[in-house]
Amino acid sequence: MKYVILGASAAGINAAKTIRELDPNGEITIVSKDKAIYSRCMLHHVISQGRQPREINFAEENFFEKYNINWLAGQEVLGLNTEEKTVLLTGDLKISYDRLLIATGSSSFIPPIKNLAAAKQIFGLRNIEDAVAVNLAAENTGAAVVIGAGLIGMDAAYALADRGLEVTVIETAEHILPLQLDKTAAQKYEKLFRQNAVNFFFKETTVEIKLDQDNNVRGVVLQSGAFVHCGLVIVAAGVRSNIEFLKNTNVKIGRGIQVNSYQETSVPNIYAAGDVCESTETFTGQVSLTPIWPSAILQGRTAGSNMAAIPRQLEINFAFKNSMTFYGLHTISFGLTGQADSDSKELIYQDAGNYKKIIFKDGVIKGAILQGDISNSGLIGKLVQDKTKISHPEQIFNMTYANFFAQKENGEFCFACNDNCH
Q1: Cα–Cα distance for residue pair 217/168, rounded to 1 Å
Q2: Which residues fall within 8 angstroms of residue 299, CB to CB, at 6 or more apart?
Q3: What contacts 71, CB < 8 A, 6 or more positions away?
Q4: CB 275, CB 291: distance < 8 Å
Q5: Model-level pTM?
Q6: What angle (nearest 5°) sits at the alpha carbon of residue 51, between those of residues 45 and 52?
Q7: Sign of the CA dihedral 173, 179, 185, 191?
Q8: pLDDT in tens, 54-66
Q9: Could you tell me if 360 and 366 are in contact, meaning their C-beta atoms sit under 8 angstroms apart?
Q10: How many helices (H) and strands (E) does the chain have?
Q11: 3-class SS at 337?
């Protein structure tokens, strides 16, 4: 059996490992544009110079030799022929497969801003090459602009400020991390960032990059007319799935490659996992992209098992969870985090160092933010993920796993979720 895996990040590596564990004799080939294995979640550590690029490798030492995997590194996928079962790579190289996994991830979205394409010191933050390039550019300027205040943008801002640069963050929403936090939690971080020479413009958009005659970045112009001096710009305004090479194929796509709970695409023997695919998300029940690292790992393992002919369904595809730490302040959020609607109820606990908010609807937790003290986050996450009914919501901040232990008729202890324990 010839297995070909496109992509060498969380989904691809975990799929390959799973296949090898289930099929000792199969021929496994990983194709990747990347020339190294690394965690995209840790790229900001390279910018801050806290780690060398080799220190963010997440795979086992000698991974490819240990699992007898052929790795074609530095190869870009240019096309797919589903009838011939072949993949076209850089240099007109063509390889065949019996079963194929597409785990090509996503790329930074570059918004239509005047002079953005011509400017030299403009960077996304998706690949190790981006981080290395930002690292070098930061040596030649004292000021940087970050467009977008999501997790990638704030990681970049934190790293650049840690290098001693004056950083300005431009965000269209009214506070940082708008998809992960409410305004109260976000403002605690905003205060810490400001104390470390990071400035903010909210409800603003960048309309132009100012350049010198050699196309070096000299600043950005905002919609309000304000000008921000800088020598480099990081664009963290979202991502797009890497699916261009699937044009003119019969692989069904939406915002990403559409897959079922077995990670199967619309074409037999072709699977997809990670940022590149869209699937039914556990919390919302809706088909969507699930671009978080834990989901990519589970999807990769599921795809690998099914490719090796051991049927396995993806049971948990929970993408509404985020964790972060800036300046020593820890936060974890689950589900919906914004303002509760009229049918929902908010419970809030707050003291000098901690902020906790739980949103209930019909006795079920629909969202939670734990900031400062996150010791109970495992339980809260489990309750959100399982949509567990809480009979006494007012006691939520004092609950522990012990409140939800149940015992089956055979004496086995289990978590008292809605439908498994009696």
Answers
A1: 14
A2: 11, 263, 273, 274, 277, 279, 290, 314, 317
A3: 8, 29, 30, 32, 64
A4: yes
A5: 0.88
A6: 120
A7: negative
A8: 999 999 989 999 9
A9: yes
A10: 8, 28
A11: coil
